[in-house]
């Protein structure tokens, strides 16, 4: 994958964020097929599953089998979401390339989602980092960075404190996540600007949900001030089952189409992503929020109606 400093790096999260909230069981073989198909579309990372309590997220209880059976593309980092040491040990056993450790800026959401305080999450992450930082890549996510469905506004100083905590543990790649789409472009610029005083654009990922229709606006705002790495989900699937009102991630094909139309380079094959996205309703039993899957890209033109020939 050739990239330039302008390239927007797309990281696909549908196999994890997308499927974790689906009420219908997606068979292990179908998950593997989905990840294998995504592996040929130009993504730098694919979040292929999570290693959390099967009671908390039954939809992803087969993470071990999925990670062991996928056909890995050598250029792609296959990521696993991790809440605790037990999950990290499972992920190492399944040969995940990167562990994405997650806690929330909101104490209430952390308690609802992870059933522990932020301090307790960090105690587990410290243990994971001590045991595994030489063995596997580590990424630290701050969920609800831009707002919490329980607590409302989040103090940016608290986000900075949590980022600094990750850095102090030797975890240098950071994701700022907008769990329920509460971010706006002005706020995004403020927080991203502050976080980029601590880490480089290469170390920072933005994870936006389109719950309130501002997902791609937030991408552009972050990109304008130097952010380059973004999570998105094919079909616009996704959402946290422990965040009331959660809905889909920004949609991969809608994101890539926007980039192509305005001249931001990506490494993604848009046509292939659209084709795969169009298969999702059959897999999941419902329509998806994808705009591009329905409309097609701008250059897909239609034959004009015959009657216009009589009008000229
Ligand atoms: N993988 C598999 N099983 C796990 C696990 C993991 N990572 N962590 C804990 N468990 C199991 C324990 O072994 C125990 O099993 P048992 O009942 O058979 O003895 C059970 O889960 C309870 O363990 P405990 O440590 O008390 O966990 P908890 O009930 O306090 O839940 C979490 C804590 C973090 C495991 C749970 O809240 C969780 O998985 N949250 C993740 C939610 C999520 O993925 N949200 C969306 C992504 S942001
Ligand atoms: Zn998410």
Automatic annotation (TrEMBL):
<keyword id="KW-0479">Metal-binding</keyword>
<dbReference type="GO" id="GO:0006552">
    <property type="term" value="P:L-leucine catabolic process"/>
</dbReference>
<feature type="domain" description="Pyruvate carboxyltransferase">
    <location>
        <begin position="8"/>
        <end position="274"/>
    </location>
</feature>
<protein>
    <submittedName>
        <fullName>Hydroxymethylglutaryl-CoA lyase</fullName>
    </submittedName>
</protein>
<dbReference type="InterPro" id="IPR013785">
    <property type="entry name" value="Aldolase_TIM"/>
</dbReference>
<dbReference type="GO" id="GO:0046951">
    <property type="term" value="P:ketone body biosynthetic process"/>
</dbReference>
<keyword id="KW-0456">Lyase</keyword>
<comment type="similarity">
    <text>Belongs to the HMG-CoA lyase family.</text>
</comment>
<dbReference type="Pfam" id="PF00682">
    <property type="entry name" value="HMGL-like"/>
</dbReference>
<dbReference type="GO" id="GO:0046872">
    <property type="term" value="F:metal ion binding"/>
</dbReference>
<dbReference type="GO" id="GO:0004419">
    <property type="term" value="F:hydroxymethylglutaryl-CoA lyase activity"/>
</dbReference>
<dbReference type="InterPro" id="IPR000891">
    <property type="entry name" value="PYR_CT"/>
</dbReference>
<dbReference type="InterPro" id="IPR043594">
    <property type="entry name" value="HMGL"/>
</dbReference>
